[in-house]
Amino acid sequence: MPELPEVETIRRGLAHVMSGRRILRAELRRADLRRPFPPALAERLQGARIGALGRRGKYLLIELDDDGILILHLGMSGRITAGAASPAGRHDHVVLTLDDGSHIRFNDPRRFGLLDYTSRAQLARHPLLADLGPEPLEPGFDGVYLTAALAGRTTPLKSALLDQRVVAGLGNIYACEALYRARLSPRRRAGAIGRDRAARLAAAIRAVLEEAIAAGGSSLRDYVRADGGLGYFQHRWAVYGREGMPCPGCDCAEGVRRIVQAGRSTFYCAKRQR
DNA sequence: AGACGTACCTGACCGC
DNA sequence: TGCGGTCAGGTACGTC
User: Per-residue pLDDT for A229 more than 60?
Assistant: First the structure.
């Protein structure tokens, strides 16, 4: 599921039910996801007091006791649900029992997600986080930055946006949607977009992410239900998954075009995006 | 260094 | 109904 807006929505929803609670029990129902769980993970979780929940790009960060941080990535198919105790289901890989009796479940059919554990002091240097680009919703992410970050890159603009070193948290959907809003062709060479277009793109990225978070936030209560229903942004997608259909307000006969870039589907309007 | 293909997994969907 | 093929929101690694 998860790009930045979904992880942020999850973070906010989980903070309500997790922060301040103690973990009574941590059940690891297998030894790995994308890679092995860190050593003694269950022991470190068990008994820990949960602090604030943070986010960096698509990584969810859960403070434990005074110095621990649980790092969690949802991969392609990861979900976290919270609710009353019930038997673990298929693909529920990690189940936490909190001191109010509720269960937090990490479910991930494809197992591209991961869990790791570090300390607050080491967090910024953690290999998973050290090379991430700026948070697009924080100050400093603008046309000047983007121009510099993309300088010299010959890869298509769309592919560059998926590079987490350029900007943290964009995935395939929102990269497509942001380019549509900025009216920029995904095929344009990344290193050659220029200051004005870069500023347009940075603003479009911010706008699409903020709207998606707002849409997710509106169904926040739903999200933390046991069924994991999530306020995804899909009803507002202008181009993603809409091959052959018109983009909003567009009269081009062809409709949204789908191409493959670096092995990923890209959706765009060839008339409005140049 | 940067760009590309491939691998990791399961599930949903489509056409036959 | 079943079967094979294709595709999927992400990242890491090897190779050129």
Answer: no
- b/e burial code for range A174-194 (CB count within 10 A of at least 16 → b): bbbbbbbbbbbbbbbebeebe
Q: Which domains does chain A have, with CATH numbers?
A: 4-125 (3.20.190.10), 143-268 (1.10.8.50)
How many other C-beta atoms are found inside a 10 Å radius of the C-beta of residue A224? 23
How far is it, in rounded angstroms, from Cα A178 to Cα A166?
Answer: 15
**CA distances to A103, A250, A274 from A89, in Å:** 12, 45, 47
Cα distance between residue A78 and residue A73, in whole Å: 8
The pTM is what? 0.94
| Protein residues with Cβ atoms closer than 7 angstroms to any atom of nucleic acid strand B | A 34, 77, 90-91, 109-112, 152-156, 159-160, 190-191, 262-263
> Residue A156's pLDDT is what?
96
Q: Which residue is nearest to nucleotide B6 (CA to C1')?
A: A263
Note if A2 is an active site residue: yes
pLDDT the model gives residue A230: 44
Per-residue pLDDT tens for A105-118?
999 999 999 999 99
